[in-house]
Structure formats: structure tokens, C-alpha cells
Amino acid sequence: MLTADRVLAAGIMVLSVYFMWHASALSIGWNGMTGGPGGGAFPFWLSGIMFLCAGGIVLRSFKDSAPFAKDDTPFFDPDTLRSVVVVTLALTATVAALPFAGAYIAIPMFLLWYLKIYGKHGWVLTGALTICTPVFLFFFFEVTLKILLPKGWTEPWFFPLYARFF
Fold first, then answer.
1. The whole model's pTM is what?
2. Judging by beta carbons within 10 Å of its beta carbon (0-12, 13-18, 19+), is residue 48 exposed, middle or buried?
3. What average pLDDT does range 36-47 have in this prediction?
4. Contact, 75 vs 4, CB < 8 A?
5. How far is CA 74 from CA 1, 8, 62, 116, in A?
6. Which end of the chain has fewer CB atoms within 10 angstroms, the N or the C?
7. How far apart, in whole angstroms, are the C-alpha atoms of residue 81 and residue 4?
8. Residue 66 per-residue DSSP state
9. DSSP state, 93?
């Protein structure tokens, strides 16, 4: 298990450096002309946080392990492996649906499935998150950051909102 922790954390650290390198092609500081963060700020700093967290996992794995300790525990038990595969397939289907159904249909559908069907949570939590998440995503990405998310066949539904906010 410790080896798996170390390998995955090291892989995340390498990906973080790669993401930070690409994000630094854009401004990562405050942009005085637009009065907001540069285009690379969020990816760069989030990747930096991801790097630090993965580094903490690596350090913790060395601190908690005795030298030359043998750990024969499987990385995933069968139930956990089944859960990981099912959720991975659902996320893959969600990403595949993004160009056609759009983010504002695909993401709530995934949340509905994940919370109500897979997680067996109540309707209040499921409904609140399924409705509030796309509303938050719209205002955060499209209105605040001016980053358009894919809308697929729902694009015409957003024309009145574009007229209001842009």
C-alpha cells in the first residue's frame, strides 16, 4: 500500500509540474488591465497546491513506514475496485456526453446518478446539489471568468442569459 501511495503521489507531482509549466505560458498574476487574475492563475496555483498535497503524501508515507517493512495488503479490495470501475465508467460517459448534451445537462445527470442511485442519498440533498451546481458553474465560469462551457444542443436556451450578462 505504501508503494502505491508513493507511486501515485509521485505521478501527481509530475503532472502538477507539467500543468504549472503549461499554465505559466499565460499570466499567473493579477492582470491590471482586466482587474482580475491572469489566464494561467487558477491552473498554476491549483497545480501548485496539488503538488504540495502530493508531496505531503510522499513524506507521510516515509514517516509512517518502518525500514524494509513488507506490506502484502492489496491496493484495492474487490468491493472498492468495483466501485472505482463503476464511477470511472460513469465519469467517462459524462465526459463523452459533454459535447452533445452540454455541461449543464451532463453534470447534473451525473450528480443525480451518483447521489441518488449510486450513493442512495435523499431527494433533498440530491435535488439541491443537482440544481445548485450548474447554476454555480454558470455564474462562476461564464459570468465571472468569461469562460464558456460546452452547451451542446442546449445552446439556444442560453441566448437570453447571454443578452443579460454580456
1. 0.65
2. middle
3. 85
4. yes
5. 7, 15, 19, 30
6. C
7. 14
8. P
9. H
